[in-house]
Amino acid sequence: MRGELPEYYFRVRDNGAFVFRIDPDARNLRVEMDQIAVVNIRNGDVKPHGGRSLSDADMSAIKAWMDERRSLLARRDIDDIHRTVDHLNQTAHWAQSKASDGDLEEVTDRLLLAMHDLRSVLVRKKADRQSGGD
């Protein structure tokens, strides 16, 4: 069973993860998970758990996980934006072909404000990029 399990398990949370070292107990076919650290991917903090010190192998595994996690979250962010474009297109179709006057009254102001805010940010950012970010 040892060959099937990773050496570390990362219990994901909002800002990072709790890090556990996996220790399979062959006698009882049990898996022991010993928490060794708490990591924060936003600020890069790695805090050892329970007064322990982390080995170079622990730190290497944690840093690799943090890099992979940041990459995954970045891919998810851009995927969410592509989905938002699709949702905007679907919303336009809904407003034009399916929405009742009551439906439109309920959402029009919020949608217009959100789209105005988004447009302002996008236009400003595009102007910054085109002017070289001055």
Verbal overview:
The structure is a single chain. By secondary structure, the chain is of the alpha+beta class. It has a domain at 2-80. The protein has 2 helices and 4 strands. The protein has helices spanning 56-97, 101-130; strands spanning 8-13, 16-25, 30-40, 46-48. A 4-stranded antiparallel sheet has the order 1-2-3-4, covered by helices on one side. Strand 3 (30-40) and strand 4 (46-48) form a beta hairpin. The longest helix is centred in the middle third of the chain and has 42 residues, at 56-97. The mean pLDDT is 93.
Low-confidence stretches: none
| Major beta-sheet overview | 4 strands, antiparallel
Question: How far apart are the termini?
Answer: 58 Å
How much β-strand is present in the residues? Answer: 15-25%
Backbone shape = elongated
Number of strands: 4
Radius of gyration equals: 24 Å
- Count of separate DSSP helical elements: 2
Mean pLDDT metric: 93
Portion in helices: 40-55%
N-to-C series of helices and strands: EEEEHH
Main attributes of the structure:
alpha+beta, single chain, 134 residues
Show the helix and strand layout:
Blueprint: E1 8-13, E2 16-25, E3 30-40, E4 46-48, H1 56-97, H2 101-130
Antiparallel strand pairs: 1-2, 2-3, 3-4
Question: What is the structure about, briefly put?
Answer:
The chain is of the alpha+beta class.
